[in-house]
Design goal:
By secondary structure, the chain is an all-alpha fold. The chain contains 3 helices and no strands. The chain has a domain of 35 residues. The model has no long low-confidence stretch (mean pLDDT 69). Its main location: membrane.
């Protein structure tokens, strides 16, 4: 989970720490782009690992 920039579900935080995070600092569109970029990275590396370990190149057009 740490390599995917994700925290575990049981991570304990206080409310004051949640307010100080980047959730408040960015506008909604920028905040959404940050999370979309993280998911794109996860999907890309999934594609990369599958294509390396199966010796099979998956077409990106499918």
């Amino acid at each position: 989970i740490a390599k995917l920039n994700r925290r575990s579900i049981d991570f304990v935080e206080g409310e004051s720490e949640l307010v100080l995070r980047f959730n408040v600092e960015y506008f909604r569109a920028t905040f959404a782009l940050i999370f979309m970029a993280e998911y794109v990275i996860i999907i890309f590396f999934r594609y990369l690992v599958v294509s390396i370990f199966t010796n099979f190149i998956i077409s990106l057009w499918i």
